[in-house]
Write a sequence for this structure.
């Protein structure tokens, strides 16, 4: 974590690791990637969805979290530790864990919108909004990008940065990237998208509040450091800000729910 953090500036480090066969190999490979990164300049490290494959294992979960807690404490850095399958009361969830610079688990977000190949997982029902060094971070996982309502809630709760951990494959990449850019511009916030390169895509990137891509990786394992000017983003919001007509939307929805009718269709 940077020694002097400013509320106007925030630095994210995307770590695009490629899963290996064993947990030991995964941890060694990740440690090598992290050791080459500029950790002292980062406020938040973000890693991909299914960071070590879609492996359902309580041991893998425990050892991975132990690794990240030690790593965050040793380097005084916060992390969205990708997503890891998590089991609770007999159900498995696709869960992103947040760990602070003291190595403490400060929260977790369970993927709310599951894809057709995730039938073995249960849906989460709590939004991922967290405060890191005074900056509110909204967390989502992959297919959550398809649903703008979720991100509206995060923005309404004060998020100024969206951190998205994903495992987007080639057939869906262009559409998903377009949706990520839309989520950034429609909410006028930065969006950090860390994508698993296992499917051959990778291309983790940081998207600005105006939908432009400010930095990106290729399809290989690697790291990306990006400085975000939060004050500049706020100026942009004040300049082009708009008022959503929730008063009208609510009336329409209430009418439709009550009568079953639909207007202007």
């Amino acid at each position: 974590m940077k020694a002097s953090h400013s509320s106007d500036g925030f630095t994210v480090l995307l770590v695009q690791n490629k899963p290996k066969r064993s947990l030991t190999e995964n941890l060694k490979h990740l440690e090598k990637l992290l050791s080459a990164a500029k950790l002292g300049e980062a406020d938040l490290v973000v890693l991909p969805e299914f960071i070590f494959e879609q492996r359902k294992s309580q041991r893998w979960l425990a050892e991975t979290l132990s690794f990240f807690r030690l790593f965050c404490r040793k380097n005084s850095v916060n992390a969205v530790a990708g997503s890891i399958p998590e089991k609770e009361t007999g159900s498995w969830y696709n869960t992103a864990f947040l760990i602070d610079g003291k190595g403490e688990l400060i929260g977790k977000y369970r993927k709310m919108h599951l894809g057709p190949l995730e039938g073995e997982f249960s849906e989460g029902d709590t939004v991922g909004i967290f405060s890191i060094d005074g900056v509110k971070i909204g967390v989502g996982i992959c297919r959550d990008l398809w649903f703008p309502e979720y991100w509206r809630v995060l923005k309404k709760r004060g998020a100024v940065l969206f951190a998205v951990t994903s495992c987007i494959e080639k057939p869906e990449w262009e559409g998903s990237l377009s949706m990520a850019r839309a989520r950034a511009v429609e909410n006028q916030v930065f969006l950090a998208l860390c994508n698993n390169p296992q499917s051959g895509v990778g291309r983790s990137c940081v998207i600005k509040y105006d939908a432009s891509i400010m930095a990106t990786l290729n399809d290989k394992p690697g790291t990306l450091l990006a400085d975000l000017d939060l004050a500049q983003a706020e100026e942009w919001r004040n300049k082009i800000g708009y008022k959503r007509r929730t008063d009208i939307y609510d009336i329409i929805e209430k009418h439709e729910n009550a009568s079953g009718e639909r207007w202007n269709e």
